[in-house]
Amino acid sequence: MDALIIKPTEHLPAISLIAETGRFVFYGKSLPEDGKVFYTPVLRWIEEYALSPAAKTECSFKMEYFNSSSSKCFADILNILDSIREKSHAVTIIWNFDEEDDEMREMGEQYQSIYKLDFHFRSYK
Predict the structure, then answer these.
(1) Could you give all domains of the chain from N- to C-terminal order, each with its CATH number?
(2) Which of 27, 72, 104, 107 is deepest in the core (most CB within 10 A)?
(3) Could you report the per-residue pLDDT of 35-51, keeping only the tens digit for each?
(4) What are the CA-CA distances from residue 93 to residues 9, 32, 37, 85, 101 (Å)?
């Protein structure tokens, strides 16, 4: 399965999805006008990955900001990752946030309260 790499723009995040290592990274700002349009290829890729995932999957989010449309798409991504966990595969979520950004930390905590994924919170300055 080919990796999916999306380069960042001023309003869209960098995304790196690599099946053979099971490493996923979402980084930057996510402000698409229509999150569903932007994230559909990402969701399809992760759905295909879920059919034959690596033994361990690690998904790292280091978002400066994201809009409500992106938030819904992130929930969809986490839902797929949770389905991988339900098949007895290890799935870890690394939620990175600026130590002064309470909203971003709280958003990660909200996701953690919904999904049974192994969340790790890391603050940075």
Answers:
(1) 4-124 (3.30.750.24)
(2) 104
(3) 999 999 999 999 999 99
(4) 24, 23, 24, 11, 18
